[in-house]
Amino acid sequence: MEECISVKTPMCYKEKLQKEDGTKPTDEAHYRSLVGCLMYLTATRPDILYVVSVLSRFLNCAKESHMIAAKRVLRYLKGTSCHGVKFTKSKELKLSGFSDSE
């Protein structure tokens, strides 16, 4: 995965992951481990939260299509490694935000 091509979105547009999609089963332990690592990343990467929650629905019935979708998230993370939320220790609490209502 180190030399993979990055993608701009963590999930394909209108991708429908299903329990029975006709693809062959994959190693569930490996899939569970990968999704678990992605869940850990959601604390600082809220942009992948939705797709990781979708992937977590198939922990007990992982198919090849689910593994491909999980690897797509890794490719997305490679291209957006400078994005994220940084939590720092501070004595003063300061909340700042931005909203574009248009």
From TrEMBL:
Q: What's the protein called, per UniProt?
A: Reverse transcriptase Ty1/copia-type domain-containing protein
Organism field: Punica granatum (Pomegranate)
